[in-house]
Amino acid sequence: MTLDPATVTVIAPNLKKRYSGVTSTVLRLVPLQARQIAIASVGPKLPPEIPQIRLRDLLTMPRRLRVWHARRNNEMLAGLALKHILRQPLKLMFTSAAQRQHSAWTKGLIRRMDKVVATSARSAAFLDAPAQVIHHGIDTDHFAPAPARAALRQQLGLPHDKVLLGCFGRVRPSKGNDLFIDAMIAVLPDFPDVHAVMMGGVTEAFMDYAADLRTRAAASPVADRIHILPEDPGWTIAPWFQAIDLYIAPQRNEGFGLTPLEAASCGVPSIATDTGAFAEIVAQDVTGLLIPTDDPAALQQAIRTALSDPARLSRWAAACRPRAVNGFRIADEAAALIAIYRALLGPSA
Question: At the top level of CATH, which class does the domain 149-327 belong to?
Fold first, then answer.
């Protein structure tokens, strides 16, 4: 959906060809925000249904007060160039999800922004500039408990009468898939009614890593109960969250991390490592357990704790959906960002 740049008051660039978590954020938010404010994205590779302007429009669009909402260094730099070289009267905004010390170059760019947002309290702690924390949200209407889980499991080819543990997302060392597989090999022999499901996309760089995980699982005494599946080709992963009983998020590092939140919205508790925004998503012993990162023993013990106490697991599950709906809706994220846009635009909004 290509828009006339003269009608746009907020630009949310996506200046990267490769799909990433930032890309996902832009693609989820912009269509929703466009219902309330004149916003468009711009970038080299955007789906046609996303409200957008063309890259070349940046050079010729009429001068008017706009918000430029960057989420990457190159987007901050582009905003500064538009403002100071092309004399566009922009208000510059930056959202950071990073949980690491920023380079001097990045810090310099951030200092020149008019508004800074962090996606978690931990991300905000790494910023030298004042930042407002706005959590990522999800579509809690779409990620919702399944009305007929047994039928759903049958449709997905999963055992309908077993306890299912899931681990979904890209397969690579940073996501801790090896920790999940090793935990399943160690724990499942003691819980004969439990099956594990790992599913996700594998890029060329991590083909050997994924192949090794399959080999380890196949050689284990519980090979028939560890299901390693390719990425679901459908447009949504929600049914897989709806089908499981416990989600495992073993990441070694993460920017924000939506999967425990998507699980919670489906009424599924999580065992998650203390990275990304997981400490702000998973309420300790209320909607799951938070454990140290890259700690195989802690992960295995937490899984044993959950599986050994079905009443506790049920209590966690009951608390998940209310926590997601009351604090992590994408509509709330969109509204909080729009409020900032309007404050930056002033009466012109």
Answer: alpha beta
